[in-house]
Write a structure and sequence with these properties.
alpha/beta, Rossmann fold, seven-stranded parallel β-sheet, 7 helices, 7 strands, binds nicotinamide-adenine-dinucleotide
């Protein structure tokens, strides 16, 4: 039995984000899916963005509306400017506004450095970094137009960038991915500095190893999981809900004074576990 099977249930406070409108990109799978569901449980209405896999997105919508809030699935490629603009326009039209953006969509195209093609490099930068830039820019325009609505939130808007421990841990064989996440850190901090005076909070969540389709080979055999656990002092591989709950908290007014921060949600992976017995 894994440590999570025996763990007590964690309950998302149902009114924490009541009346807020959230957009989660890449929300038909993994971390985005769990985050969209948790935002709904916290009382937010949720747009579930997807680029492929409409059926999965519709299932997520069904699960969210089960919490008694509104949800809809919008197709858009986050790296395509016109599609992002159209998605945000549609959200404002159908949901009234946006209060929370979770810029989550991301992918990997791994290769040893000398074998990495320009297309592999560019695709990862386009989706992981430019995609977050485009979504953040369009959400910010709406935050600025609407301003603070005190009954809804103390902030005019919240942006949560999905980064990774690889914004600070170099990752051989993944130079495109690690560069995209390093870029997210500086983009997030610069936007946080620029937008804080407008009462827009920009922060990031940096997951460690979470069980999702993006990294299946790292945890789907007993040996792979044992090897992975050597990097995780807390001695369990993360679940999508671990990240979803961090996002809900960060988006809420409980965290209203948190601006420009990266919340590492990694079971201690960034604590240099090799030094626990060496060094
Ligand atoms: P996942 O593959 O399950 O989900 C990624 C989602 O992004 C999918 O829904 C995919 O369709 C979507 N996507 C890809 N390209 C898109 C595009 N152009 N437009 C819109 N959506 C697009 O993987 P995940 O683990 O849930 O990853 C979510 C985020 O978390 C990513 O940014 C990833 O880098 C980050 N992350 C994951 C881990 C982990 O261990 N799983 C660790 C650190 C960071």
């Amino acid at each position: 039995m894994s440590s999570t099977e025996s763990a007590p249930q964690r309950v998302v406070p149902a009114h924490l984000l009541k009346g807020q409108k959230a957009l989660v990109t890449g929300a038909n799978s993994g971390i985005g899916r769990a985050t969209a569901v948790a935002l709904g449980r916290a009382g937010a209405d949720v747009v579930v963005n997807y680029v492929a896999g409409r059926e999965d997105a519709e299932q997520v919508v069904e699960e969210i509306t089960g919490s008694g809030v509104q949800a809809a699935a919008y197709e858009a490629d986050v790296s395509d400017e016109d599609q992002v603009v159209a998605m945000m326009d549609r959200m404002v039209k159908e949901f009234g506004t946006i209060d929370i953006l979770v810029a989550n969509a991301g992918l990997q195209r791994d290769a040893p450095f000398t074998e990495m093609t320009l297309a592999q490099w560019q695709k990862v930068l386009d989706v992981n970094l430019t995609g977050q830039f485009l979504c953040a820019r369009e959400a910010t325009k709406e935050f600025l137009r609407r301003g603070v609505v005190p009954e809804v939130s103390r902030a005019a808007g919240k942006i949560i960038c999905m980064s990774s421990v690889h914004q600070i841990i170099p990752w051989a064989g993944h130079v495109n991915y690690a560069s995209s996440k390093g870029g997210i850190q500086m983009m997030m901090e610069t936007l946080a500095q620029e937008l804080a005076p407008k009462k827009i909070r920009v922060n990031a969540v940096a997951p460690g190893a979470i069980k999702t389709p993006i990294n299946r080979s790292a945890w789907d055999t007993a040996q792979a999981e044992r090897d992975l656990l050597k990097l995780i002092p807390y001695d369990r591989v993360g679940e999508p809900e671990d990240i979803a709950h961090a996002v809900v908290a960060l988006a809420s007014d409980l965290m209203d004074y948190v601006v420009g921060a990266t919340l590492y949600v990694d079971g201690g992976m960034t604590l240099f576990p090799g030094f626990a017995t060496g060094g």
